[in-house]
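User: Hi! I have a protein structure encoded as tokens and I'd like to know what sequence might fold into it. I'm fairly new to this, so please keep things simple.
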């Protein structure tokens, strides 16, 4: 009888210990899955933010590409090239080139403008 009582106590202790061990193990798995889910959610948010920034960058590059394509099509027009060539000083055969020069200022007015108050005073005194 005493032997059965020891076996029952030992069996109850093992059953309780095994139940607690399984409970802790189950809680460990649950905690692991919750932490993994949290990390995956954080990573997903980072990826979505990166996707948004890359889409904005793609849009700006496409706009720049459209502007460059427009510039290329404009550059292929004869009027555009004629204007660029004329800016460099070329002329068509049979045309005369006219250069408009700025008006020349007299050197005396330029020196008077450069003199300050003290220089004018010294010039009047005679130094």
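Assistant: Happy to help. Inverse folding works backwards from shape to sequence: for each of the 127 positions I chose a residue that suits the local structure. Here it is:
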């Amino acid at each position: 009888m005493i032997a059965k009582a020891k076996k029952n106590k030992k069996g109850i202790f093992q059953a309780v210990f095994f139940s607690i061990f399984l409970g802790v193990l189950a809680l460990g798995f649950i905690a692991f899955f919750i932490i993994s889910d949290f990390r995956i959610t954080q990573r997903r948010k980072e990826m979505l933010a990166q996707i948004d920034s890359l889409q904005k960058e793609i849009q700006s590059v496409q706009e720049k590409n459209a502007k460059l394509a427009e510039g290329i099509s404009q550059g292929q027009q004869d009027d555009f090239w004629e204007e660029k060539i004329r800016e460099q000083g070329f002329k068509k055969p049979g045309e005369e080139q006219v250069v408009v020069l700025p008006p020349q200022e007299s050197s005396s007015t330029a020196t008077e403008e450069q003199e300050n108050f003290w220089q004018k005073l010294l010039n009047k005194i005679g130094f």
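A useful reference point when you look it over: DSSP finds four helices and no strands in the chain. Feel free to ask if any position seems puzzling.
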